[in-house]
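Practice problem. Given the sequence and the SMILES for zinc ion, write out the predicted structure.
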Amino acid sequence: MAIFKTEAVVLKTHDFRETSKIVSVYSRKYGRLQLIAKGVRNRKSKFGTVLDTLNYLSIVYYFKDTRELQLLSNAELVKPFFNFRTDLKRFAYASIVAEIIYRTQLMGDENPRLFHALISVLDGIDGAADFRNYFNAFLIRFLEISGFRPGLRRCMNCRRIPEDNWVYFDFNRGGYLCEKCHNTGNANFRFSLIALKSLQVLRDSPWEEIEQINISENYLAEIEKFLLFYLKVHFDGLATLHAVDFLRSLNL
Ligand SMILES: [Zn+2]
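Answer key:
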């Protein structure tokens, strides 16, 4: 049995037997892991609230490749995200991110770029005034990392950079038709040119600049709808996201 150490974010937990917990994390070095934290629900447990969902941790665990569930030995908080705990809307957005990772990533399949994106988006959702910029910047990066990069620059038919107010996306082909070409194909999702350009900026800007990008509320909502729809088309496991339902139920 080997001892491994890595940074990880808690995606989900559930109670197990009398006093233990199963903790699903996404880790920097080993991708998604399922850990068992023994005795963690005892009042005297050293873990306390360290294993709460969305916490960013440094963990040590015992690895055995014959089992799916690894034994957690130690966990310490790397960085607390205070605002998640008091702001339901931020918590809901961060929960959508965690649910997407949980449902799409295979066990032990590491991806340092995705881990970096995860930490960056949680940091932004926790601390930034315009935290939805971060959420959308994460979704477009997630699509790219997963191999579903939408073509944003040119019309699929005439190859021109569009100038009219609307473009029409074809999710299956991963691109759009401009206003002039739109009756030549099966592109049904109408997307405004301003939202399209704003999404390009979110995609192409480094994380440090995401907060400064100025996108008005209605275009952010349009981008968000577009990206969540795009995810659903390409990932069977994301047909329904509980965290999205939760966000809508808040009615904020
Ligand atoms: Zn065209």
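Check your answer against the key. The pocket of zinc ion is lined by residues 155, 157-158, 160, 177-178, 180-181 (CB under 6 Å).
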